[in-house]
Write a structure and sequence with these properties.
Helix content is 35%, strand content 24%. With 142 residues, the protein is of the alpha/beta class. Helix 2 links the parallel strand 4 and strand 5.
Length: 142
């Protein structure tokens, strides 16, 4: 099933919500400490569809890691967003549009209401969604 919402905190587990567990607490399905641990799964999910892999609020390094993992650069849609509100809005819109097979978002801490809205958007659109709490580290300019 594609009704999945993943919440990734760089220090905790990846959580998956399925229709059977929607009203209950999040169930941890895999332990991961970084994006690198998710790359094989993301690659496998991207092969199931010819839709976008939408990346929101990430650095160029994240996009390069996705390409190195085998996800076609021509299928990656990269949205920066100037602030938390724009990234949250872009994530919700990417989920509701139904044009992405995967949405990866770096949003920081989410209000419970926002988290619930994103879960519902993911469920309605049948889009895999991974939400990261921490912003990826920025490479210094010097």
């Amino acid at each position: 099933m594609r009704n999945k919402f993943y919440h990734h905190d760089m220090l905790s587990a990846v959580h998956e919500v399925t229709p059977d567990t929607w009203a209950s607490e999040l169930e941890a399905t895999a332990t991961s400490s970084s994006l690198e641990a998710l790359l094989p799964r993301l690659h496998a999910l991207s092969l199931r569809s010819h839709q976008w892999v939408t990346v929101i609020g990430a650095t160029r390094d994240v996009v390069e890691k996705l390409v190195a993992a085998g996800i076609s650069r021509t299928r990656i849609r990269w949205v920066c967003g100037r602030n938390q509100d724009e990234r949250e809005w872009a994530t919700e819109q990417a989920l509701l549009a139904g044009t992405s097979s995967i949405v990866l978002s770096w949003l920081g801490e989410l209000a419970p209401r926002t988290q619930q809205r994103l879960k519902m958007a993911s469920k309605v659109s049948h889009t895999h969604s991974f939400i990261f709490d921490e912003q990826p580290s920025r490479t210094p300019l010097h």
